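Sample A.
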Amino acid sequence: MDIIAIANQKGGVGKTTTTVNLASALALIAKKKVLMIDLDSQGNATTSVGLDKNALEYTMADVLLDGVALADAIITTETGLDVIGANRDLAGIDVSLAGVSDAPFLLKQALEQAQKDGKLDYDFIIMDCAPSLSMITVNAFAATDGVIIPMQCEYYALEGVADLIATIEKLKSINDKLHIRGVVRTLFDNRNTLAQDVSAELIKHFGDLVYQTSIPRNIRLAEAPSFGQSIFGYEKSSKGAIAYHMLMNEVLTQTAAR
């Protein structure tokens, strides 16, 4: 089982879009068993696969705060992708967990218990992290095998990711498997000179960690969530769908090489 966190503390970089469409590609095209976990109180990943975030019986808040079994919160969507949703109940979790000694490990413990109970039979778990370095993100980093960082090729891209990289380095003390699995360039327009320059800087800084696939600016990618669908359900022939298919292939190659 490969556990991947999609994270960037900067908002608007295509983090949730990458989570939903990578998870969907793995489930729909590669026919892998995939669990997508929404760890953002905005619940955008949840609604992007057609679920009503406010009508869920259990969410990640119930798992982390109330001890609900992780398997009980799993919902199987029409596409075959399994999901644990989130909503505003996750907001303020840092305050709720203040003083809890094992707070950074609640998600990891929930996953391990579900696996021990034989209820976590997946090839991939893909986690959508909130755009902040909060306790919920720390939980994701304590439980994950590697982090994929979506980055928009703009002026502040490298500066904005510095804190995230520093956090990952610090948290290796509680998760020795934690590493940057890859950096994916999102909202990319190769006709834009600035985007090309920042892309070159990313490659210079991260080297082979930058995926060869870049995700283009694509209106179909922007439209799909409002219909509660991944790009593959909404417009599978679009440039966005083709790009996420290619990214999926790179992720599968990484997993096979482990």
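Sample B.
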Amino acid sequence: MSTVTDNDLRELKDLINSKFEQVDRKFEQIDRKIEQVDRKIEQGNEKIDSKFEKVFEELTTIKVDIATLKEGQNGLGKRLDNLDIIARSVGGGILVALLIGLTKFLYPNLLG
């Protein structure tokens, strides 16, 4: 049987410590990479949030425009009703003028 000396124990301890240091370095590298990925994800989330805000603003603008169009459509119906009355009046006036002109053409002595 071989005997274990203090020197062998120190070498074993140093070997174990060096392996732990290597493992610690690897974990530090992994932690740095995870932090980089987290930063990139946060930046991506910020970009997505800003894009959602822009889309929300556009939707709000579109909703306001639609409401304005609906109001204009209601007013347009009233204006069309007014135009219908005016068109009928003008058409009637033209018809009366044509009848008077035809009467004057056919019977020049009738209307003075």
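B remarks: The mean pLDDT is 85. The longest helix spans residues 6-106.
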